[in-house]
UniProtKB/TrEMBL annotation:
Belongs to the ClpX chaperone family. HslU subfamily. The lineage of its organism: Bacteria, Pseudomonadati, Campylobacterota, Epsilonproteobacteria, Campylobacterales. It comes from Sulfurovum xiamenensis. Pfam families: AAA (PF00004), AAA_2 (PF07724). CDD domains: RecA-like_HslU. This is HslU--HslV peptidase ATPase subunit. It is an enzyme of class 3 (hydrolase). Its EC number is 3.4.21.-.
Length: 442
C-alpha cells in the first residue's frame, strides 16, 4: 500500500477520521512524494528530501488518530513517539537517537514478517518434519530397505495426524530460545552499549537455550522462530530492513510543543528542553545513527510533528528546527456537527462499539437520533465550559450515560434498551450546567 495515490490515502483516512481535510491532503501528498521519489534516477533521489510536516491543533481533534491510521494502512516502518519523553544527552532519560533505533527495529519486524509470509510453506514443512522426527524413534544407521519403508509409512501416517491436529496434545522436548535481559529504558546511550556488550558476552551469543517439555501445539510456535532463523539469511534481512527504513521510514513526533520554550517564560525550569531541540535537529536534518541494522542515514526519513501549542507557539521552537518542518497545517476545533459525525460515521464509531459490547451480553442497544444529537451538543458544551479535549469528551459523556445500563446488563438479557434524549438529559444536563461538576465529572 506504499504507492497509493493521494486521493486513495484520503479516502482511506475518511473511513476513520472525520473532517480535517487539509491535514489529510498535506500528509497524502507527502506520502505520495515518497513513491514518486523512488521512481527518479539515483542522482536525483539524493537531492529530493522529504518535506516534513508540523500539525497544529488542540488535543482530541484527530492528530494522533491520523497517525495511528497511517501506521495501520502502510507497509512502511512507522513509529509514534512523544517528544516530551526525550532528554538532552547527558541527562537521565532516553536520547533522541533512540527513536531511530526503534524505527529500525520496526523495519526489521516488517521485513521478517514479509519474508516469513513468502517462505510460509518452507517454514511449515520445517516445523512439521522437526515435530514428527521427535515423536518417531530415530531410524538406525544402516537400516534395511524394509525398515526404511516402514519408517516412511509411519512418517506418512504421522503427517496425516499432524495435519488434522491429532498430535497437538502430545508432549515433546524442544530447545527454547535464549532471551537475554535487554538494556533498561532511560539509560544514556553509552550505558546501553555497555549493557548490550555484557549481554552478548554472558549469554546473548548462543541462540539456543535449555530444553523444555511442551505440547506439540506450543512447540509449533517455538519452532517457528527457529525455522525462520534457519531458512532466512539474517544478513539479507538486515540489508532489506536498512533500505526500507532509510527510503520509507516515518516518525510521528507528538507533543513537540512540550519541548518549545515559551518566549514569555521567565524561569528556565527545564534547561533540557532546548537541549532536546538541539539533539533533534541533526536527526531531522539528516545524520547517521548507529542501530542494530548498522548505520541508518536519516536524510530521507519523513518526520511529522504535532502539538497543541496552547502555552507556546511554533515560533518558540529553534529557528533551525522550524525550518526543518516547512509544511504547516492547522487542524480545526470540533463543532457540534463534527462531534455528531465522529459519534456515528467512522468505520468503528463509538456508537457501534457500545452496541457491539452490549451484544456480547445479549442486550440490544438502540440510540434515537435525538439522543445522538444531544450527546454531541452536551459534549461541545462541556468542552466550551472547561478545557477543550475534543472528541475525547464523547467517551466521558457516553460512559456517564451508559454506566448504569452497562453495570446491570446481565439483568436485561434478550432485551432491547432504547437510549433517548430524555435519558441523555437526565444523566448529563445537570452535570454540564454546573461548571465545577463538569470539570471534575466530565
Amino acid at each position: 500500500m506504499d504507492n497509493l495515490t493521494p486521493k486513495e490515502i484520503v479516502t482511506y483516512l475518511d473511513k476513520y477520521v472525520i473532517g480535517q481535510n487539509e491535514a489529510k491532503k498535506t500528509i497524502a501528498v507527502a506520502l505520495r512524494n515518497r513513491y514518486r521519489r523512488m521512481q527518479l534516477t539515483p542522482e536525483m533521489q539524493q537531492d529530493v528530501t522529504p518535506k516534513n510536516i508540523l500539525m497544529i491543533g488542540s488535543t482530541g481533534v484527530g492528530k494522533t488518530e491520523i497517525a495511528r491510521r497511517l501506521a495501520k494502512m502502510m507497509n512502511l516502518p512507522f513509529i509514534k513517539v512523544e517528544a516530551s519523553k526525550y532528554t538532552e544527552v547527558g541527562f537521565v532519560g532516553r536520547d533522541v537517537e533512540s527513536m531511530i533505533r526503534d524505527l529500525a527495529a520496526t523495519s526489521m519486524t516488517l521485513v521478517r514478517e514479509s519474508e516469513n509470509e513468502k517462505n510460509k510453506e518452507k517454514i511449515e514443512n520445517y516445523i512439521e518434519n522437526k515435530i514428527i522426527e521427535k515423536l518417531l524413534p530415530p531410524l538406525p544407521a544402516g537400516a534395511s530397505e524394509q525398515k526404511k519403508a516402514e519408517y516412511d509409512a509411519s512418517f506418512a501416517r504421522m503427517q496425516e495426524k499432524y495435519t488434522k491436529g491429532e498430535l497437538d496434545h502430545l508432549k515433546i522436548k524442544v530447545e527454547v530460545p535464549n532471551n537475554p535481559t535487554m538494556p533498561e529504558e532511560g539509560l544514556p546511550p553509552q550505558m546501553i552499549q555497555v549493557q548490550e556488550s555484557i549481554v552478548k558476552v554472558l549469554g546473548g551469543m548462543g541462540k539456543k537455550g535449555p530444553e523444555k517439555e511442551v505440547t506439540v501445539k506450543d512447540a509449533k510456535k517455538i519452532l517457528a522462530s527457529e525455522a525462520s532463523e534457519k531458512l532466512l539469511d539474517e544478513e539479507e534481512l538486515k540489508s532489506l530492513a536498512l533500505e526500507k527504513v532509510e527510503k520509507g521510514g516515518i516518525v510521528f513526533l507528538d507533543e513537540i510543543d512540550k519541548i518549545a520554550v515559551a518566549s514569555n517564560s521567565q524561569s528556565r525550569q527545564d534547561p533540557s528542553k532546548e537541549g532536546v531541540q538541539r539533539d533533534l535537529l541533526p536527526i531531522v536534518e539528516g545524520s547517521a545513527v548507529n542501530t542494530k541494522l548498522g548505520m541508518v542515514n536519516t536524510d530521507h526519513i519523513l518526520f511529522i510533528a504535532a502539538g497543541a501549542f496552547h502555552v507556546s507557539k511554533p515560533s518558540d521552537l529553534m529557528p533551525e528546527l522550524q525550518g526543518r518542518f516547512p509544511l504547516r497545517v492547522e487542524l480545526n476545533s470540533l463543532d457540534e456537527e463534527t462531534l455528531y459525525r465522529i459519534l456515528t460515521e467512522p468505520k468503528n464509531a463509538l456508537i457501534k462499539q457500545y452496541e457491539a459490547l452490549m451484544k456480547v451480553e445479549d442486550v440490544e442497544l438502540v440510540f434515537d437520533e435525538e439522543a445522538l444529537r444531544a450527546i454531541a451538543h452536551y459534549s461541545l458544551l462541556a468542552n466550551e465550559k472547561t478545557e477543550d479535549i475534543g472528541a475525547r469528551r464523547l467517551h466521558t459523556v457516553m460512559e456517564k450515560i451508559l454506566e448504569e445500563i452497562s453495570f446491570s446488563a446481565d439483568e436485561h438479557k434478550g432485551e432491547s434498551i432504547h437510549v433517548d434524549k430524555a435519558l441523555v438529559e437526565e444523566k448529563i444536563s445537570k452535570v454540564v450546567e454546573d461548571e465545577d461538576a463538569t470539570r471534575y465529572i466530565l
